[in-house]
Write a structure and sequence with these properties.
Elements lengths: L34 H17 L16 H11 L2 H8 L3 H4 L11 H14 L9 H10 L11 H16 L18 H13 L5 H6 L1 E9 L5 E8 L2 E4 L8 E2 H9 L2 E3 L6 E2 L4 E2 L2 E9 L3 E7 L1 E4 L2 E4 L4 E2 L5 E2 L12 E12 L4 E8 L6 E5 L2 E4 L10 E8 L13
Parallel strand pairs: 3-9, 4-12
Antiparallel strand pairs: 1-2, 1-8, 5-8, 6-7, 9-18, 10-11, 13-14, 14-15, 14-18, 15-16, 16-17
Protein name: Ubiquitin carboxyl-terminal hydrolase
GO biological process, one term: proteolysis
Pfam families: UCH
């Protein structure tokens, strides 16, 4: 598994296209051209332009043999506006850091090429991601072959690989152990975040990485210690109810609820200098631009893997997460733009994706080679596995939030 680097209202243009379409320059036409012919010619150009307009972002990916997990995540990332633009404008090439790359030297380039193909294709013919697949297999050999894989695990490896290649830090400084216990939690969190950026700083980090706060309190002396860790996604348990609907907020509350550390789990209290019964809880210190929530549907027990198919109701927009934030955390309202789905059971299944096209503002289903429109009501299902949320603009009204 990767290291710790691993665990907008969309403005719709007048024409639903990712790139501006060149308008015909009629000034070069012959001055003898009649007005009716001029209008007819103009309309003809517009019609032809519409007929030939690229289905930008609405192109499928061929299944190369149990690669639906990969296709699902790639479509979700392709519909991440800032990451898409980063690739389309070739900005990634200015960030390529060859000194940090070995076996994964071409991963970012192949990912960018694939994203460009999905958004510049002149027809709706599915694209083969074979070149990209070769590179991700070089970076992460566990994906070699045609075995079924976990989409969330693939996402972690992929983001880690992309980050490594475009890390703005060419030489990572040595890690020094510093005592921050005398600092306030807010100041300690900032220091830890800056130390992280001194080693890990990329466009991928800019988008996907947040900071999690873990607080451990001794039940004997009351001493509280805090640890701040970066995260690429949050793996949250699926809540269980005897009656009533399970919501995403229920799952997040379960993730952030206070746990008791006792028995063999007792940590050493820094004040008591011995192992003590403690309580522990999580909160989000810094929210990322893109928040990835992984619903933990798979679990191992008695040497068997099982899957929870519980329907979890999650909002498509106005998700207010301030309840789960540290006191000093900033705005935390998100809009959903992509979902990676898993249908089937723990022994086998199929991955698809629902993505909101950032140019059209409409939801589509991505099932390997097949792409089709879906209504927003279809996006919620018991197959939802990985949720992709984007931070809402700062002008967002605090009175227009969804409380589940």
């Amino acid at each position: 598994m990767p290291s710790l680097r691993h665990s907008y209202t969309v403005t719709v243009p007048e024409e639903p296209a990712a790139f501006p379409v060149d308008k015909p320059d009629l000034r070069r036409k012959s001055p003898s051209l009649s007005r009716s012919k001029l209008v007819s010619t103009f309309m003809g150009l517009i019609i032809n332009q519409a007929k030939n307009k690229s289905p930008q972002g609405l192109v499928g990916l061929r299944n190369l043999g149990n690669t639906c997990f990969m296709n699902s995540i790639l479509q979700c990332l392709s519909n991440t506006p800032e990451l898409r633009d980063y690739c389309l404008r070739n900005v990634h090439r200015t960030d390529l850091n060859n000194s940090n790359c070995t076996a994964n030297a071409a991963l970012m380039e192949e990912f960018a090429k694939l994203t460009q193909s999905l958004w510049t294709s002149v027809n709706n013919e599915a694209i083969s991601p074979s070149d990209f697949r070769s590179q991700i297999q070089r970076f992460a050999p566990k994906f070699v072959g045609c075995n079924q894989q976990d989409a969330q695990e693939f996402l972690r490896f992929l983001l880690d690989g992309l980050h490594n290649e475009v890390n703005r830090v060419t030489v990572r400084p040595k890690v020094y152990v510093e005592d921050f216990d005398h600092l306030s939690d807010d100041e300690k969190g900032k220091r830890m975040w800056n130390m992280y950026l001194e080693r890990e700083d990329s466009k991928v980090v800019d988008l996907f990485v947040g900071q999690l706060k873990s607080s451990v309190t001794c039940t004997v002396c009351g001493f509280r210690s805090t640890v701040f860790d970066p995260f690429w996604d949050l793996s949250i348990p699926v809540a269980q109810k005897s009656s009533g609907e399970v919501t995403l907020r229920d799952c997040l509350r379960l993730f952030t609820k206070e746990d008791v550390l006792d028995g063999e789990e007792r940590p050493t209290c820094n004040r008591c200098k011995t192992r003590r019964k403690c309580t522990k809880r999580f909160s989000v210190q810094k929210f990322p631009q893109i928040l990835v929530l992984h619903l933990k549907r798979f679990s191992d027990s008695n040497l068997r893997t099982s899957k929870l198919s519980t329907y979890v109701n999650f909002p498509l927009k106005e998700l207010d997460l301030r309840e789960f934030a540290s006191e000093s955390s900033e705005r935390a309202v998100y809009n959903l733009y992509a979902v990676s789905n898993h249908s089937g059971n723990a022994l086998g299944g199929h991955y698809t994706a629902y993505c909101k096209n950032p140019a059209l503002g409409e939801w589509h289903s991505y099932n390997d080679s097949r792409v089709s429109p879906v209504s927003s009501s279809q996006v919620r299902s018991s197959n939802a596995y990985v949720l992709f949320y984007e931070l809402a603009p700062p002008t967002h009204s605090k009175y227009q939030t969804c409380r589940l």
